[in-house]
From TrEMBL:
<dbReference type="Pfam" id="PF03992">
    <property type="entry name" value="ABM"/>
</dbReference>
<dbReference type="InterPro" id="IPR007138">
    <property type="entry name" value="ABM_dom"/>
</dbReference>
<dbReference type="InterPro" id="IPR011008">
    <property type="entry name" value="Dimeric_a/b-barrel"/>
</dbReference>
<protein>
    <recommendedName>
        <fullName>ABM domain-containing protein</fullName>
    </recommendedName>
</protein>
<dbReference type="InterPro" id="IPR050744">
    <property type="entry name" value="AI-2_Isomerase_LsrG"/>
</dbReference>
<dbReference type="GO" id="GO:0003824">
    <property type="term" value="F:catalytic activity"/>
</dbReference>
<feature type="domain" description="ABM">
    <location>
        <begin position="2"/>
        <end position="90"/>
    </location>
</feature>
Length: 100
């Protein structure tokens, strides 16, 4: 299982447009066969900060996501939103336990 977690910050005047554009990415990614979870959540403390969480069944599914047209299109559009900070980390997990 592949888990990706982190955050992105964009210029404050770009945050609403970034959220709209990212909604398209989230909707399309959630329909990918290997996607378990895919979220961008806007911070309640800083409107231009978006928390990222992704979970894919395996590396092949993650790689397929990276090649998907909707992801590549979104990635090319990032420069429009003036990304100011980003920290995203990929983890390889061997077990998934639901706690609640």
């Amino acid at each position: 299982m592949i888990v990706v977690s982190g955050f992105m910050e964009v210029a404050p005047d770009c945050a609403d447009r970034f959220a709209e554009r990212t909604r398209e990415l989230v909707d399309a990614t959630r329909r990918e066969p290997g996607c378990v979870e895919y979220r961008f959540a806007r911070s309640i403390e800083k409107a231009e900060r978006f928390e990222v969480f992704e979970e894919f069944v395996d590396q092949a599914a993650f790689d397929e996501h990276a090649r998907a047209d909707h992801y590549r299109s979104w990635n090319r559009a990032l420069k429009e939103f003036q990304v100011t900070r980003v920290s995203i980390v990929k983890y390889v997990a061997t077990e998934r336990t639901v706690l609640a």
